[in-house]
Structures are given as structure tokens and as C-alpha cells.
């Protein structure tokens, strides 16, 4: 085979065989195929797309580029959850304890944040002593005994995806559904789970800006999962504004605790209960979604769910007292209020601008090697649909840096205020199964 022939084949919208796709992925991972040829191939995929079989073969080839995780020693049906990324998305911190309460083993492998989207591992590391690197033996034992454990992703998992994503980022080929779907699903397949629930975000703070795009991505990933022997469900959820009221690592841990105590915001509580209930049904704890949802809500009301979070923190070396006293979490020195310049209804909030603002305040990374400030972030005082008077506080910036003018300007401009009250936001747009 020659790479140039395969580029030309895809350029003319011809389907590639499993062997041809494997030649490209393994060759690029090993360094036999140069960046310039892989860039041309990615652009051809961007414009010409791939059929279902090609996307499944692409996913499997990425899985086979590195190690895979064997979870066969864990009892029960292992259910994993993945979010396509957003702003204020602290769902894993809520969902893991909920599923563990009903006996669903959650062996979670998560990543760090990059750019305007946060990472679950960073959030957990804002808790004093919490270890996100534990031995394989402890990981398996914790899931068998407590039904939950969470660790950072192995660097040897899907190395092809890491290399390809870095190239997509600089060649304008990030927003390609075949490439997004294979990237996400390869990590989930390699992680060894039996079933997958996908949280596909849509809106200004997500990869997919329209519901139609998000549904296509969701259907593509569900088809990949099913074709590779994994029961898969996708939940399309809203990211047209930040989820909940807190953005930033320690801030989001604090808010996750609030959700599990029963006084979280309606949008994030609804999304968390929806995803956790779908996971519980796939894992066999309930026969139908409605029963699962009712029971999940009861776990919050009874206090059992928040006690499970405390247990997760304890078994991974963290200080469980943060659950009862969130002030033990890192605190920023500076708090800057962003005021409304006019009166009216909040019609929209650009989630990506808020996410970038939080990054500029120190809560995120511009590059993978950047350090982060766990205490930095943004508290959303107003949400879409709220009335504001001139001079009301829209949000509060938390930081330890001296010059925040760029973040202040971005946060101010993220809010669009008009005379008319907008239609209510739909938190869960649809379910694909």
C-alpha cells in the first residue's frame, strides 16, 4: 500500500477497507507516515466523510494502537460514562456515587482539562490528598468492594488518538463527526467497559453547536458502540450556557456536593439524574428508566448519595471533611463582580466565553503542560431567563492573578440582555439508544 493512493481514494469519496485504515493508523502511530500525509488524509475525511463500517474500523484501529484495560476481574456489568466536554460540567462527581449506591460498578478513567473545558481529574485533585493515580490492584479492589473508583487515563491508552488529535488541532479538522466519534469511542472501548452512556453536549460551549449536529454525532457513536459489542446510549444535553452556577475546579466540587445534598441547580440536577438512571438500567439495577430516575432522586433526598461521595474521597486518600465543610477547598484571594450595564432579561450566555474567562483566571490550561489554580473560577449569579436591573451582579470572578482585564471583558460580553424573556432552555434534548 501507498499512503498517497489511500489519500486519493478518500479524496474521491471511496470507502476504505479495514486493512487500509489499519495501515494508516498504525503507520502514523509508529512514525512511518509523515504529518503532511496524515494531514491530507484528515482533510479528505473532513470533506468526504466515512460510512458506518469505516468509522467502526477506524475506532478499532485506534483502540489497537496501544494498551487496552482488562476489567474482567470486576464483578457485575461495568458501565462507563463520557461527556463530549463543556463548561461547568461536574457530572461525573455526582453520577459515580449515585450509580455506586445501587450496586452498579463504575470503573472510571478520566482526563484533565484543556482550553475552555474542564477535566474531572483536575476537579478531584483540588481535594486535599485525593489520589488520581492508584495501582491497578487497588483500582479493581475498590470497584469490587465499594462499586467505584476513578483514575487518570493511562498514557499508553489509544496513543494514535493523542497523536491524531494534536494534528487535527492545528489543521482545522477538529469538527469532523467521523473523527470526533472515533476519538471518543476508542477511549471508551479501550477502557474495558461493558456498556457506555454518552453525554453529548450541544450549544455555544460544546463542539456541536446545533441539535441536529449533536444528534448525528450521538447516533454515530451509538452505532460504533453497538457494532463493537458495547451497549451504548447517548443523551443529548444542553451546553448553550454553563451547567449549574459554578465553573472552575474547587468551585465545581463544592457544587457537586450541593447537588448530592439536594439543593443543586435544576439544569445540572436533571442532567445528572438522567445520565445516572440510564447507566443504572444498562447495568441491570432497574428494568425501566422511570423507576431508576425515581430511586436516584430518593438517594439524594435521603442523604445516601452524598455519603457515598464522602466514601469515594476517603478510599482514594482525600479529606472527606470537605463534604461537610466545603470551605476546606482552595479559596482564591480576589473576587471580582461583573455588573449588568442595562436592565432586561438574560437572553443568552456564551458558555465558551465563560470557559475561556475561567481559563484566563487560572482555572484551565492553554497547553497540556500548563499548571492550574484549583481555586480560580467563576460563579454564575444570573442564568438565562433571569431578570436583571442595571448594576446587578451577573457573575463573580475568582482568581489570584493581578491583571484580569481580558477575563473581565469576556465575561461581561458573554451575557446578552434584552427586553423580551427567552423561551425556557431544554436541559435534555433527546435520548439515542
UniProtKB/TrEMBL annotation:
It catalyses: uridine + phosphate = alpha-D-ribose 1-phosphate + uracil; 2'-deoxyuridine + phosphate = 2-deoxy-alpha-D-ribose 1-phosphate + uracil; thymidine + phosphate = 2-deoxy-alpha-D-ribose 1-phosphate + thymine. Keywords: Glycosyltransferase, Transferase. GO terms for cellular component: cytosol. Catalyzes phosphorolysis of the pyrimidine nucleosides uridine, thymidine and 2'-deoxyuridine with the formation of the corresponding pyrimidine base and ribose-1-phosphate. The keyword Transferase applies. It comes from Acetivibrio mesophilus. Its EC number is 2.4.2.2. SMART domains: PYNP_C. InterPro entries: Glycosyl_Trfase_fam3, Glycosyl_Trfase_fam3_N_dom, Glycosyl_Trfase_fam3_N_dom_sf, Nuc_phospho_transferase, PYNP-like_C_sf, PYNP_C, Pyrmidine_PPas_bac/euk, Pyrmidine_PPase_CS. One of its GO terms (molecular function) is 1,4-alpha-oligoglucan phosphorylase activity. This is Pyrimidine-nucleoside phosphorylase. PROSITE patterns: THYMID_PHOSPHORYLASE. NCBIfam families: PRK05820.1, PRK06078.1, Y_phosphoryl. Residues 345-418 form the Pyrimidine nucleoside phosphorylase C-terminal domain. Homodimer. The lineage of its organism: Bacteria, Bacillati, Bacillota, Clostridia, Eubacteriales. PANTHER family: THYMIDINE PHOSPHORYLASE. One of its GO terms (biological process) is pyrimidine nucleoside metabolic process. Belongs to the thymidine/pyrimidine-nucleoside phosphorylase family.
Amino acid at each position: 500500500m501507498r499512503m498517497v493512493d489511500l489519500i486519493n481514494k478518500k479524496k474521491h469519496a471511496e470507502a476504505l477497507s479495514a486493512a487500509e485504515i489499519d495501515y494508516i493508523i498504525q503507520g502514523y502511530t509508529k512514525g512511518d507516515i509523515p504529518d503532511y500525509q496524515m494531514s491530507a488524509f484528515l482533510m479528505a475525511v473532513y470533506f468526504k466523510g466515512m460510512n458506518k463500517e469505516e468509522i467502526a474500523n477506524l475506532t478499532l484501529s485506534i483502540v489497537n494502537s496501544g494498551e487496552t484495560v482488562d476489567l474482567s476481574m470486576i464483578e457485575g456489568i461495568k458501565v462507563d460514562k463520557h461527556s463530549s466536554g463543556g463548561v461547568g460540567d461536574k457530572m461525573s462527581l455526582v453520577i459515580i456515587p449515585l450509580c455506586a449506591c445501587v450496586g452498579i460498578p463504575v470503573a472510571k478513567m478520566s482526563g484533565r482539562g484543556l482550553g475552555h473545558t474542564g477535566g474531572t481529574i483536575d476537579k478531584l485533585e483540588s481535594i486535599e490528598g485525593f489520589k488520581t493515580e492508584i495501582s491497578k490492584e487497588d483500582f479493581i479492589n475498590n470497584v469490587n468492594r465499594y462499586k467505584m473508583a476513578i483514575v487518570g487515563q493511562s498514557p499508553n491508552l489509544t496513543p494514535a488518538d493523542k497523536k491524531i488529535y494534536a494534528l487535527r488541532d492545528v489543521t482545522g479538522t477538529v469538527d469532523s463527526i467521523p473523527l470526533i466519534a472515533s476519538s471518543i469511542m476508542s477511549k471508551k472501548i479501550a477502557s474495558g467497559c461493558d456498556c457506555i452512556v454518552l453525554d453529548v453536549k450541544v450549544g455555544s460551549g460544546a463542539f456541536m453547536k446545533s441539535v441536529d449536529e449533536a444528534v448525528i454525532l450521538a447516533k454515530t457513536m451509538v452505532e460504533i458502540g453497538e457494532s463493537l459489542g458495547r451497549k451504548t446510549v447517548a443523551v443529548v444535553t444542553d451546553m448553550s450556557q454553563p451547567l449549574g452556577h459554578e465553573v472552575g475546579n474547587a468551585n465545581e466540587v463544592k457544587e457537586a456536593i450541593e447537588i448530592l445534598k439536594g439543593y443543586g441547580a435544576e439544569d445540572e440536577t436533571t442532567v445528572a439524574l438522567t445520565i445516572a438512571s440510564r447507566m443504572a438500567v444498562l447495568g441491570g439495577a432497574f428494568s425501566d428508566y422511570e423507576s431508576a430516575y425515581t430511586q436516584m432522586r430518593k438517594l439524594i433526598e435521603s442523604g445516601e448519595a452524598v455519603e457515598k461521595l464522602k466514601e469515594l474521597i476517603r478510599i482514594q486518600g482525600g479529606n472527606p471533611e470537605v463534604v461537610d465543610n466545603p470551605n476546606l477547598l482552595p479559596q482564591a484571594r480576589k473576587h471580582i463582580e461583573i455588573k449588568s450595564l442595562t436592565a432586561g432579561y438574560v437572553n443568552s450566555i456564551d458558555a465558551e466565553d465563560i470557559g475561556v474567562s475561567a481559563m484566563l483566571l487560572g482555572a484551565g490550561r492553554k497547553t497540556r503542560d500548563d499548571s492550574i489554580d484549583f481555586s480560580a473560577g467563576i460563579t454564575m449569579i444570573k442564568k438565562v431567563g433571569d431578570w436583571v436591573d442595571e448594576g446587578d451582579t451577573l457573575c463573580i470572578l475568582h482568581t489570584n492573578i493581578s491583571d484580569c482585564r481580558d477575563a473581565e471583558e469576556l465575561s461581561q460580553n458573554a451575557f446578552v440582555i434584552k427586553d423580551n424573556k427567552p423561551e425556557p432552555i431544554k436541559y435534555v434534548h433527546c435520548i439515542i439508544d
